[in-house]
Amino acid sequence: MNCEILAPAGGEQSAYVALNSGADAVYLGLSQFSARQGAENFDLPALFRVCSYAHVLGAKVYVALNTLVKEEEIAAFFSLAREAWNAGADALILQDVFLGKQLKRTYPEICLHLSTQGGCCNEYGARLAKEYGFSRVVLARETPMEEIRRIASIIETEGFVQGALCSSFSGQCYFSSFVGNNSGNRGRCKQPCRKKYSIDRSGYEEEAYALSLSDLCMEKSARTLVEAGVYSLKIEGRMRRPEYVAAAVSYYRAIFGDGSVKRAFSDLSRAYNRGDYTHGLAFGQDKTFLSRNVQGHVGERVGTLSLRGGKWFCESDYPACEGDGFKLLRSGKEVGGGRFRAAEKQGFYLNVGRDVRIGDEVRVTTDVSSSQRLLSAKRTREIAVRVRIVAGEYPVAECGDVRVVGDLPVQEAKSAPLTEAQIKENFSKTDTMPLSVTFDCVQTENAFMPKSALNAFRRDFYGQLLRSFSETRSLEERAIPFPPLMRKKGDLTAVITTELGEIKADVIIYKPADYSAIPPFERGHGAVYLYLPPFFTSSDEEKICDQIDRFDGIYGEGSYAILLARKYRKPLFAGTGLNLSNSLAVQALKEEGVAMFALSKELTDEEQSALALEGAFALSAGSIKLMDLVYCPFERTCKECDRRERYTLTDEGGRAFPLRRYCIGGACRFEVYNCTSLATFNGATSVLVDLSVEEAGQAAVSSARSPERGKEIFQTVTSGHGNKSLL
Questions:
Q1: Residues of the chain below pLDDT 50
Q2: Do 360 and 332 touch, CB atoms closer than 8 A?
Q3: pLDDT value at position 696?
Q4: Quick one: residue 346, left, alpha or beta (phi over 0 = left, psi -120 to 50 = alpha)?
Q5: Are 154 and 130 in contact (CB under 8 A)?
Q6: pLDDT tens, 240-283?
Q7: Domains of the chain, with CATH numbers?
Q8: Residue 130 φ then ψ, to 5°
Q9: What pTM was estimated for this model as a whole?
Q10: How many other C-beta atoms lie within 10 A of the C-beta of residue 496?
């Protein structure tokens, strides 16, 4: 099948391991603008080395510059993008489709891929990305198969097949940002979704990993993805160990016919496995989608625990050895860990903790032998070299179209002349380059070259050969197309509400509990816009297309809404989900004729004020949406569901996060809101009030320009990032 296996590289070792294991491409981050700031990441010299190595093997390197970029960072972002391209990157991965449009205008030579954080889940998002100059979109993990086929017919696609799944819809998670001031959109997610929560619904009151998802493993379903038109099969894991990267690449190589699938899956399970794997939402939510009992790596089952001679023993055919590590599970929950103690016939002894019992499941989580085998893989490119070193002539070395001639004629040998075997031995040394050398022809006659001169000639030859595998680039710095900032103080009020009829504002944004049952409403209290969520499919559109004409406009939480609004000839209010964080993004949006737009809710009051252009709004009061869930946290137990519109998610510290349920296209989706309401005001933009889970009604609207008034109306308040810059 014609597809690309794309591997993660959190650091340089992982990059080489991935390439040596057979990856067709790797993706990595630099020290700035990487959505995995906790990874080792790369500086420019390391990027150059990896690009050179990859290109020798015919592989590619994609650089993730996929965080939100603030106004004061634009110059550094453009500079780093240019330098990464010059270092040999085959594409840059961006989250901000609007910033990407401006980068492509400035440097049309650069190839751009839209990150999964860009939220491309339908044909409108795909067409917009292509229109803006992107060559590929990384599909949102939640994209269903019918949408994948449509998108793949428009633009080259990349889809996840392996690794961790985000609980929230891609690019729309603010949980870590508002709970701990560490933004996922800035590469510093602290994963609060992996902690324990209870939910006030029967059967879910006990604390569990209520939002933690199983790892994705598409297995042979990856073939279905390719058949649907997906070109690049992406493995998640820039924060994981090199042996995991090797195991994942080897597994998907085996899936497509290169190796033993059974052994490769075992290696993968031992390298990292968060419990039962899921095939992901492309194939519908399965029973293993949530990982409520286990949060971390549980490896592969190798047996059960017993006592033998007063010592803990595991009867197993697994060949345990020194350094191996294990976890012990009981009824699917972790109860302890263990280390290898000694081998015995039909099993091995373990050192374990105090809380274990006979019958506990033993799972290997560190397999030393497997890791060593995976990390020792070597991949090379075969080349045929021709060398002529003859006395009185200039030395010549050739490979393909590369021909290198020495600087000085070869000396005549006075005693022992240079032999063919010596030349072959010397030119067989390729240092760190992944080359396997054969010789078409080696000629020598009565020649003498000092060893240092021969080594220098060889290094010069291989250096030029190495450069021939990569495109030489020298993009020079160009002026950034900063728009003139015509600031205008905003005086409008827009309100997101789940109820129509009572709220008065300049713009009322209606957010239905059920999109198939939108009630009649009367205009008169302001223009009424229909709220559309960030995840939106063609099936959703079919269900509500006849409703759109009833509204004055569309409030869209995803960039797809630009073309959707254009299709229905409706004005667009661009929501906070577009994460507008700099003037170039705002300018690109305004070029689309968008008159009203909300700035990123992760900007400070001062940063929002700097972008207070005509039509700018800032979320100032009410609810703070933290996550959009495209799955059912109740494991699709529909027959037992009480179908309430509101639940409460409570963490181990007792903080209560509203969990809102709504229906669109016949399916339930959920939103998680902050445990405290927002009360802030930058004084420059128009204000946006979110009443999605608030009961204050019109009083909350009146408090939008007065944080002090907000403190009186809401039970508990936060200023959000109003005066607190994100890390």
A1: none
A2: no
A3: 87
A4: left
A5: yes
A6: 999 999 999 999 999 998 789 999 999 999 999 987 899 999 99
A7: 4-165+214-281 (3.20.20.70), 300-375 (2.40.30), 381-468 (no CATH), 493-624+674-718 (3.20.20)
A8: -65, -40
A9: 0.95
A10: 27
